[in-house]
């Protein structure tokens, strides 16, 4: 497995292989890999001749009061895990390589970002769109892999691919969970012991909400109140949001019909966790 | 020569040829081709296996009071001219193909646009950056060709390629002029007979300014006053701007040293013309 830190070298490598007709799968990550990332790498391995995993903690998608400086990092561990999944190249640029200066041309995402994480993290998806554009231009993948835990991110990247005609197929992969239901996340490492016991309630409340809906509940306010009650009662977390929207449009729903997402964000002492389920109710 | 109107078909064509190791040159135009465009096509023909010329009058780079509706168009004429230069493909999408809806993700160009055409045409370069990004993703060129008459456009596209890591080499080609010095432009067709006689004064005043500078003039205000005097005296045009900046940074200059641009825009009755010269003064 190669590790490439230079954009120029990465582009030369890609150009060489594309000229030979090789297909390329890109797995963009911020590192501190978990089973979720590895599921993306496995899928990319099945679909493509070459698999590139990028590891880059993108400063532009963190707000001034967010956890950029404490975001967990362990390159050696990531290296072994990626190698175990037969990744061909880790693209591992320094921040100064990706941003030799602050970009002069920014992307403004004006749809699908006034709700959920877009509302509580202003500018977050502008930073995501910019870095994903850069990574697409650097790795020039045929396919790029994203986890459904970041469902709003996928909705935004789908918009970006449509608006900018990126020649990239976006593949979304199911959220990987612990047996207790907790979604895998690099940020789980920052949970205290008691928070770690409480955190599975996030998914359990979503799963129970799904059961209520399958039993006929169509009122989103009651569903939200139910989840809010569960999390308030069973965890010490502070609820950032619990919301329900159509998916992937992220528009307000009158009744719980069609395809929709129930998404939440909960702040624990040192980690803000997100999770969601997407339901299709015919 | 092929004419392709569908983005999907254009991308499939490009993918097929890239897998065979073919290099691609893109000549982005708004059509109504003149010698300037054809010089770009000639250069692209020399440098690449395949030459794609796009013809698309991009609504997003026109302001509400600008000449989108009267911008000259003649596809049959363009077709013959492009064929004469051995262009392989004309990419000729409808507006609804490029913008099935107004883009949700816009680009904001925050550098090199507070002066010259960027100042008199707010939003113009945001629209240019967006459409050029789309064209790069659609045609996936190794090289893209732009005329130096649009010197600020080249400065902005250089920024964009740097910020977004587009794997595209930007080739700029000298402005093509009539014998009297008038820069070739699709908009020249809108000049009245008497304006057409006056319009060469734009370049002649720039050329005379260059002579003054080569003779030792270092004061940009005096150069600007000289050009203003020439144009006011010898044409009926209304001066939009005459400005001098470092190039390509487009920063204010104290003295006329280093590499700089003298650029102007003049409004005639039905056409706003631009021209410039770039000087290196050691």
Features:
homodimer; 282 residues; alpha/beta; Rossmann fold; Pantoate--beta-alanine Ligase, Chain: A,domain 2; 2 domains; six-stranded parallel sheet; three-stranded antiparallel sheet; 10 strands; 22% strand
Your description of this structure?
- Two copies of one chain form a homodimer.
- With 282 residues, chain A is an alpha/beta fold.
- Chain A folds into two domains: 172 residues, 3-Layer(aba) Sandwich (Rossmann fold); 92 residues, Pantoate-beta-alanine ligase, C-terminal domain (Pantoate--beta-alanine Ligase, Chain: A,domain 2), CATH 3.30.1300.10.
- In chain A, 39% of the residues lie in helices and 22% in strands.
- The first copy, chain A, is built from ten helices and ten strands.
- In chain A, strands 1-4-3-2-6-7 form a six-stranded parallel β-sheet, sandwiched between helices. A three-stranded antiparallel β-sheet of chain A has the order 8-9-10.
- In chain A, helix 6 packs across helix 7 and helix 9 packs antiparallel against helix 10.
- At the A-B interface, helix 1, strand 5, helix 6 and helix 7 of A face helix 1, strand 5, helix 6 and helix 7 of B.
């Amino acid at each position: 497995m190669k590790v490439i830190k230079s954009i120029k070298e990465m582009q030369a490598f890609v150009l060489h292989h594309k000229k030979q007709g090789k297909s390329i799968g890109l797995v963009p990550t911020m590192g501190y890999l978990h089973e979720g990332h590895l599921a993306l790498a496995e899928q990319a391995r099945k679909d493509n001749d070459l698999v590139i995993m990028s590891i880059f903690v993108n400063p532009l998608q963190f707000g001034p009061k967010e956890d950029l400086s404490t975001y967990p990092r362990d390159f050696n561990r990531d290296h072994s895990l990626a190698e175990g999944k037969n990744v061909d190249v880790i693209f591992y640029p320094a921040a100064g390589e990706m941003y030799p200066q602050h970009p002069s041309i920014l992307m403004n995402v004006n749809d699908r970002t006034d709700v959920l994480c877009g509302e509580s993290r202003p500018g977050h998806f502008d930073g995501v769109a910019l870095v994903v554009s850069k990574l697409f231009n650097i790795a020039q993948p045929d396919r790029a892999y994203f986890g459904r835990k970041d469902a709003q991110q996928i909705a935004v990247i789908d918009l970006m691919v449509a608006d900018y005609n990126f020649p990239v197929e976006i593949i979304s992969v199911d959220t990987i969970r612990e047996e207790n239901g907790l979604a895998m996340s690099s940020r789980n490492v920052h949970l205290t012991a008691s928070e770690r016991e409480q955190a599975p309630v996030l998914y359990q409340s979503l799963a129970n909400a799904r059961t209520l809906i399958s039993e006929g509940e169509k009122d989103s306010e009651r569903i939200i109140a139910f989840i809010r009650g569960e999390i308030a009662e069973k965890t010490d977390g502070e609820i950032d949001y619990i919301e329900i929207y159509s998916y992937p449009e992220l528009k307000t729903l009158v009744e719980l019909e069609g395809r929709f997402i129930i998404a939440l964000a909960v702040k624990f002492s040192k980690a803000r966790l997100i999770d969601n389920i997407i339901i299709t109710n015919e």
